[in-house]
Design goal:
Number of helices: 12
Strand content: 15-25%
Distance between the termini: 58 Å
Bound molecules: flavin-adenine dinucleotide
Oligomer: single chain
Shape: globular
Number of domains: 2
Helix content: 40-55%
Structural class: alpha+beta
CATH topology of the largest domain: Butyryl-CoA Dehydrogenase, subunit A, domain 3
Strand order of the largest sheet: 1-4-5-8
Length: 372
Amino acid sequence: MLLIKEIGTDALFALQRVLEGEELERARAFYRHCADGDLAVCVAQTDVKGDRGKGPSAQADPDLYLRIVDQNADGIVVRGAKVHTSVSMNANEMIVLPTRTMGPDDAEYAVSFAVPLDTEGLGLYVSSYAAGERNAFEFPVSSRYKMVETLTVFDDVFVPWDRVFMCRDHEKAGPLALTFVEYHRFTAVSYKLPLLDALVGAAGEIAQMNGIMKASHVREKLTWLITYAETVRALTEMAALRCRTGAHGIAYPDPMTTNMAKYTFASRYHEALEHVQDLAGGLLVTGPGGEDWENPEIRAVLEKYFRAASPADVRLRMLHLISDLTARDLGGYHAVLAVHAEGSIEAEKLQIFRSYDPTAAMAYARRLAGIG
Ligand SMILES: Cc1cc2nc3c(=O)[nH]c(=O)nc-3n(C[C@H](O)[C@H](O)[C@H](O)COP(=O)(O)OP(=O)(O)OC[C@H]3O[C@@H](n4cnc5c(N)ncnc54)[C@H](O)[C@@H]3O)c2cc1C
């Protein structure tokens, strides 16, 4: 699985760009440990967060953001919970990062470290999404690939000092959170491209199979989908081409272009689904299942009545692919993933605004207006 390596790498680069002194040396040693062992690393950044209108130290329950509850000569003890932690069930190591900017009152919450997944006191509460076995005819993608998230509970977990990267350094919490996201949104838009290609390809295939390829509204919808997918691709490539070198010689993709790519992807995703579903037709949710298809008597009926410009066999397989990607639980999962994962749409807009330097454009506008 792609993400099991990428998300950890995003965090390892961020730690090595933001930290200094002894903490930096610990992060470097941990990086070598992961590289030498070819380890799978997940990242727990998002806290459960309680009342979103309040900061970590203002919550009714102090454990709604992960915090340090004790410390001694050997290490620290942490309590609280992170949520939506992808691939934690499959990983060797978990890197924990702060989720937001913190003030002096939040010092106990300004914490970052790494623990192996079999650490005492660490509890994984797995999401029910995509549980059980499923039929490959009906679920061509989700019968083979699953990504599972957990509520990740730290019930007074001990972390030795050599694995602690940040301890009560509230001023670095925000920079570490944001630096991770700089990498992680780039990872996000990169791994979305195959999904967008699948939507474009499936839309073209089903339009042909339904016999509607020559209709002008169909070409318009296909053109929209191509423009969408290729705009995300072009912005992703441009974010890489505009990359910069940060602290300790570590490169990072251009933050503004990365966020533009992620924002374009996320804010148009539901419209893309609408176009694909429109071209496919209602069989996406009313079509026959795998067991009926396997039954020779029923299959003869399905083959007769579900033929369009193509035989029923290929048309139903394509419809099931589209249904899996857009209308069933994997489809819903990806729709929510588009809006929230790697940061919400509002967070992306904020980063675009923050990373754009308006000085030159404003000076140009003043010159054009004849203002001194
Ligand atoms: C499939 C999936 C996989 C993920 N994988 C990981 C992972 O591996 N590791 C990890 O750490 N995280 C992961 N995430 C978490 C992801 O980054 C969060 O979902 C995202 O940051 C949004 O947080 P939230 O879900 O708590 O929603 P919320 O933050 O509650 O957002 C809901 C709405 O409230 C708004 N909002 C929230 N706070 C405020 C505020 N203070 N003021 C105004 N508006 C506000 C948001 O903009 C949004 O509109 C994953 C998420 C998903 C869906």
